[in-house]
Amino acid sequence: MHQIPTNERAARWFAAAPQRHSRRAFATTRASAEQLAALTELAESLRPWPDARIALVAEPAVDVFRGVIGAYGKVTGAPHLLAVIADESGARATAHAHAGYIGEAAVLEATALGLDTCWVGGFFDPARVDAVVPTSGGERVIAVSPVGLATDGLSTTEKTMRTMAGAHKRLPLSTIAPGAGDGAWPAWALAAAECVRLAPSAVNRQPWRLRLEDGALIVARDSAIEMPKVTRALDCGIAMLHAELGARDAGASGTWTDLAGGLDVARFDVGAADDSGEGGS
Predict the structure, then answer these.
(1) What is the pLDDT of residues 171-198, one digit of tens each?
(2) Is the terminal CB of the chain with fewer CB neighbours within 10 Å at N or C?
(3) How much helix, strand and coil, in percent to the nearest 5, is found in the chain?
(4) First and final CA of the chain: distance in angstroms?
(5) What is the rounded CA–CA span in Å between residue 189 and residue 273?
(6) Distance CA 80, CA 185 (A)
(7) What are 64-113's pLDDT values in tens digits?
(8) What CA–CA distance (Å, rounded) separates 129 from 145?
């Protein structure tokens, strides 16, 4: 079982969640030494599970990004790189969920620090990433994110990519969390579901589904069919972090337990909840 280390950190990430937007065009300006030190500290300290970790590459020696078709959709100019690493020697889906959780934590930390990011799952060169991110055993880099300061204004490619992915379209609460809006869910669970609606996912597919079961919140995939490069489990791990941040802001802290049955990914059990709806972080 796992819980975010501190309320202060959870509050920072919750505040950053609505501010995070994917950016692909970066200025070459480096992040400050303080910003890089903060991300390095997070990468080294945030290891809630042994099968997932993140790594900051402050000085990428090669350009790891590639476009959808040739250079189209390609990330450009990013001075730094975050790598999201899963150890697939055990339960692959579980490792991917854990990696999604801590990867999103790093993305939100970067956002809180005033930096820009973009989850990239399929359009990077694995061989080039392997050259700059050491791995061992069953580890594999399953996603990356550029880190830096985005250019002023959206590029033409960024505008097109956002339109293609429907980046601003969010599934209604009734779809991702049936019953959440009917007054039956406690305030902490409703807040968790609302925060999940802000979570990023591959091509904005939003493959997570939430339900209450015996007073706990269950995060599940919407389908057993997985994409070869960016799994639904990875996206659900991102949703797990958002759910926990929403619950924390509503006054409820808790722990995660992995679930291996069917579509279910994980279960969040709260230890203390304040149903007043007032923030508790």
Answers:
(1) 999 999 999 988 889 999 999 999 999 9
(2) N
(3) 35, 25, 40
(4) 21
(5) 10
(6) 42
(7) 988 766 666 789 999 999 999 999 999 999 999 999 999 999 999 999 99
(8) 11
